[in-house]
Amino acid sequence: MLAAVVALCGAGPARAAALFDHPRTPQQLVDSVLAGVAGKMAATRVLTGRFVQHRQISGLPRPLVSSGDFQLARDAGITWRTHKPFESELVLAPDGMTLRSGGTEQRLSSTEQPALQAALGLLFAMFAMDLDRLDAAFELFGQAQDGSWQLGLRPRAGGLAQVFTSAVITGSAQVDRIELSSDGGDSTVIEFSGVVAQLGR
Amino acid sequence: MRHSRPTLARFWCGMALLAIVAATFAWVQPRLRVETDLLDLLPRASGDAGVEAAIDAFATRVSRKVIFLVGADDAGAASAAAAAFAGALASSGAFVDVRQEMGADVSGAIALYMAHRGTLLAEADQARLAAGHGQDILQAARLAAYTPAGLVRPLDLRRDPLGLGSAWLLGQVPSIGRARLRGSQLTVQEGAKTYVFLTAETAGSPFGAAAQDHAALALDRARQAAAVAAGRPVTILQSGALQHATRATRISQREIGFFGSVATIAVLTLMLALFRDWRAPALGMLALTAGAAAGISAAQLVFGELHLVALVFGSSLIGVAIDYSMHFHADQFRAPATWRPPDALAQVTRPILYGAGATVLGFAGLLLLPFPGLQQMALISIVGLAVACACVLLLFPVAARSAGRALPGWCARPLDAFAGAARWTGRTRCALALAALAFVAFGLSRVVFQDDIRTLQMSTPALIGEEREVARLLGAAPESRFFLVSGASAEAVLRDAEALADALRRLQAQGDIESFTTVVRALPSLERQHAAAALLAAHVFDAQGLMPAFMRELGFDEATITAQAGDARAASAPLTPAEWLASPASSGLRDLWLGERGGRYATVVTLAGIRDLAAVRAIGGRVPGIRFVDRVAEISGVLAHYRETVLRLLAFAYATIFLALLVRYRWRVALRLIAAPLGATLGTLALLGAAGAPVNLFTVLGLLLLLALGVDYAVFLREAAEDRRTALLSVSLSATTTIVSCGLLAFSSTPLIASIGLSLAAGILLCWLIAIGLQGKA
To answer: Do the beta carbons of residue B615 and residue B506 sit within 8 Å?
Structure first.
C-alpha cells in the first residue's frame, strides 16, 4: 500500500507537468480529450462505487488512509460512507453538508455561508465532472493517451473556495483517480474502483 | 425725442446695472451647479450632531452606491464581461470602489485570523465549546481529516487541525440573497443566464448634473467593454439612486427648457400683437432676463449651488418682471395720441413699487428660516424682482417706442364689454361670497396632505422595473433602512451590535428579514473575544485540550503539538477595531464602521429584504443604544414639518403684507386688496381638496408665490383705477401669461414642479377673478 502511494507520488509530477502544458476550454475537452466518455458522463444520473483516500499531511509521518463506498446522485449530492478507519457518513449537497458518525449528526448549512457553498459546489463539480462549473473557477488542462485521459485544474483567482493549488483527475471509462495538491505540501489522492453508472433521462 | 436730464440719468444708471448683472452672470454661469437631490432642499435634522453627521455620511455613501448585474447566456462570458465592465468603470474616474470580487483577499483574512486565533471563534463553535460539546468539533475534524469534507476547509490540517479557523473564515463572506460565489465572483443563475453581481460608488453626488454626465459616459464605455469581452450580447441591469437622479435631471431640464420656450413665445406673441412694436417684447425679455440672471447669480454666489426647485420657483416669480413690462406698455392705451413713455412713470411707478415692495417683504422672511431651499428661492426672487423692476422703471422711459398706439379693436371690444359686466351689485357679491365660502369650507375639509417623499421623486416605469428585476434576481431588495448602533465606546457599540445580531438572527429564522450585515461577524466585542479566549485556552489549546489530543491521534510528533498549542495560546491578543480596519480583511465591511464622532462611536447594521417592518422596528426599542433609521420616513416627516411651517409662514406673510398695506390704505381698502390672494389661496386649497388632489410642501410653496403675485394685481387695479380699462387690461395680461407658464409646469413629470405649477395656475386664475370682482368703483 505504502509503496503504491510512494510510486504514485513519484510518477505524478512528471506526468502532471506535461498535462499542464495543454490548456483546454470545456468544449475542447468534450470534443477531444473526453470524446469517448463525455456523452456517458453527461447522461449519468447516479454513480456508485468504492474509494480509497490517501491524505498526505506535512508534518505527519504516515498518510491518513480511509476507505468506503460512495453514491453520487447528480440532482441530490454525494453520500460518502467511510468504513475504515471508522464508520461515518458524509452527505455533501448544494445547501450544506451533514456529518454522521458515532451516533451523532452535525449539519453545516451553507445558505448563510456563500464561501462554504462555493467550496461544496466545486467539490461536487469535480466529482460529477461538471466542466462548465469547473471552468468558472479553474483553468482547465487535458490530455488523452491509450484510452485513458487526464484532466488538470488550476485555480483562476483567489477566493475562500480555493483549497488546493492543482488537481489532476485521471480516468478511462469513468473517473479513476483524483489527486489534489495544496500549498503546504499536503496532497489528497482518492482512487475509485467498482464504479457503476446508472444512466438516466 | 429729447428726454429730460433726470430721465437720461436714470437710463444710464439702468444701463450700468445691466452691465454689472451681465458681467456677474458671465462669471457665475460656468460655475453654476444645479442640484436635484430633494434632500438638499431640506434642513439637516437636528439632535445628536456627531452621530447625525455619521448617519449623513453613511446615507451619502448609500446613495452613491450602484449595484450592477452583468448577465450573459454563458457563465464564462458573463464573468469576463463583468471583469471588463468593472475595469472600465474603475478607470473612468466617474466611479470609485468598484467591486466584482468577493472574499478574494484570502491571505489577508488568514493572516489576521492566525494572528488572533487564540481569541477569535465562529459563533457556532463558541456555542459548542460553551455548552461543553467539544466532542462534536473533534468528530467533525476527524471526518475532515479522512473524507472529502476536509476539502472545503480553506486552512490546512497542520495550521488548523480542528477546523476552527476554517469555520471562522468561511463565515466571513456575507451572503447576498440568492447570489452564489462562483470563483470569486458572486453570481445569480436565472435559467440559462448567469448574472455577475458587482457594486460601485459614484465619485461625486449622484444628484449633481456634472457627476451624472460623467457617470453616463463611463457607463456607455463600460457596456461596450463588457460586450467586447463577452463576445456576445450582454445584459446589464442597474440599481441605485444614480439612474433615477440622472433621468430626473435630464427630463426636468428638458421640460423647463421646453415649457419655458413655449411660455416665452406665447407671451412675446401676445405683446407683439397688442403693442404692434418689436421693442415691447424685446424690452420685456430684457427685464426678464436681467432679473433671472441677477437672481441666479446672487443665489449661486451666496449658496455655492442652486437647487432645481429653487430655480423653477425663482424663474416663475421673476415672470412677474414681464408683468411690470406689461403694466408699463399698457399705459399707452390710456391716451394713445399724446402718450410718451416717461408719462407712464407717473402712472405705474407707484403700483409697481408697491407690488414689488410687498413681494420682497414677503420673501425676506424666508431668508431667516434654516431651510436652504427656501433661502435660495427667496434670494432669487428678491434680487431678481428688484433688478427687473429697476430695468422697467429706469430703462423703459427712454428705450420704449416714443409714441403711443391705440388698443387694438379685437382686444378693446371684449375688454369694454367685460369691464362693464364685471361691475357686480352688492347683492350679487353677497350671494357669490356665500357660495364661495360654502365651497371653500367644503373643499378645505377634504384637503389631503401627502408628504411621502417617494411620491415626489420621479422615475420612469422602465427604471423602476429594472430596479425590481435586480431585487428579484438577487432575492433581496437592498434596503434604505438600517440600524444605527451608537455608544460611548467602541466596545459598548460592538456589544450592542452583537445583541442586535442575535435579535436579527431570530427574525431571519422567522422569515421576517432576508439577511443583515454587521461588523461583529468579523470584529467581535472584547467581551466575546475574552469569552472565546477563555474557552479556547481551557478546552482547546490546553495540553489536555482538544487540539493536542486530535493532533496526537493523527500522529503528529510531540514537539510539533507543543509548539502549535503554544503558538495558538500566544495569539490571544484581542483584535481591536483599529487593527481590523487597517487589515485588508476588513475591506468588505469597513464602511459599516462609522468610528468616533464627537465622543460617540457608531456602527451601521444593514438589512436586506424586510418582510415584517413592524417586527424590525420593534427591535429598535428593545436593545439599548440602537436606533432604526428609516430615512424615507424621516425625510417625509421633515417634508411634513416644513409644509406646516410654510403654511404658518404664509399666514405670517399675509399679516405682514396687510400691515404694510395699512400704512397707505384705509383698513377696508387694505382688506379688499389682501382678499384677492387670500381668497385665491383658500380657493385653490379647496379646489385641490374637492378634487382629491393631495397637497404637499411644494403646493404650499406655490401658494406663497400666489401671495406675491396676487397682491400685485390687487394693488395695481387699485392704484391705476383712473383708467379702469387699462388697468384691467394689464392685470389680465399678467394673469394670462402667468397662467400659461404655470399651467405648463403643471404638466411636468417632475412631481414637485407639477405641484408648484398646478397650485399657482389655479391660484392665479382665482386671484384674477376675485381681484376684478372686488375692485373699487372707478
So the answer is: no
Q: What is the pLDDT of residues B44-71, one digit of tens each?
A: 655 556 667 777 778 777 788 888 999 9
Containing domain of residue B566, as a range? 105-175+527-571
Rounded Cα distance between B66 and A172, Å, is 49
Say if B652 falls within a structural domain: yes
In a domain, B556, yes or no: yes
Query: pLDDT at residue A1 above 50?
Result: no
Cis peptide before A85 (omega within 30 of 0): yes
Let me know whether B483 and B606 are in one domain. Answer: yes
3-state secondary structure of B595: strand
pLDDT greater than 50 at residue A13? no
pLDDT-based confidence at B720, cuts 50/70/90? low
Q: Which residues contact B608 (CB under 8 A, 6 or more apart)?
A: B176, B177, B476, B477, B478, B479, B513, B514, B515, B516, B517
Residues B638 and B610 in one domain: no
| Binary contact (A123, B148; C-beta < 8 A) | yes
Residues B652 and B705 in one domain: yes
Task: Tell me whether residue B679 is in a domain.
Answer: yes
Q: How far apart are CA A169 and CA A40, in angstroms?
A: 17
Question: How distant is the Cα of B200 from the closest Cα of chain A, in angstroms?
Answer: 20
Is residue B622 domain-shared with residue B481, that is, in the same domain? Answer: yes
Would you give the distance in Å from CA B310 to the centre of its chain?
13
Tell me the nearest-neighbour CA distance from A13 into chain B, angstroms: 21
Q: Please write the tens of the pLDDT for every residue from A172-198.
A: 888 899 998 887 778 899 999 998 888
In a domain, B223, yes or no: no
Does residue B509 sit in the same domain as residue B640?
Answer: no
In the stretch 127-156 of chain B, residues with CB closer than 8 A to chain A read 135-136, 139-140, 142-143, 145-154, 156
- Same domain, residue pair B536 and B650: no
Buried b (16+ CB within 10 A) or exposed e, B576-586: ebebbeebebb
pTM (two decimals): 0.73
Question: Domains (ranges, CATH) in chain A?
Answer: 2-199 (2.50.20.10)
Rounded CA gap, B47 and B54, in Å?
12
> Tens digit of pLDDT for each residue in B99-116?
887 655 777 888 899 999
**Residue B674 parent element (H or E):** helix B667-691
* DSSP per-residue letters across B695-717: B-HHHHHHHHHHHHHHHHHHHHH
Residues B515, B623 within the same domain: yes
Would you say how long chain B is, in residues?
A: 778
The domain boundary, picked from B601, B629, B657, lies at B629
Using the predicted structure, report yes or no on whether residue B409 has a pLDDT greater than 90.
no
CB within 8 Å: A157 and B173:
no
* Pick from B218, B222, B217, B244: nearest CA to B234: B222
Total tally of structural domains belonging to chain B: 3
Q: Which residues of B729-746 are buried (b: 16+ CB within 10 A; e: fewer)?
A: bbbbbbbbbbbbbbbbbb
Residue of A62, A160, A192 for testing the chain B interface, max B β-carbons within 10 Å: A160
Q: Looking at the complex, does the CB of residue B505 fall below 8 Å from at least one CB of chain A?
A: no
Residues B503 and B592 in one domain: yes
Residue A158 — pLDDT band, cuts 50, 70, 90? low
Tally C-beta pairs within 8 A across A and B: 171
B502 CB within 8 Å of a chain A CB: no
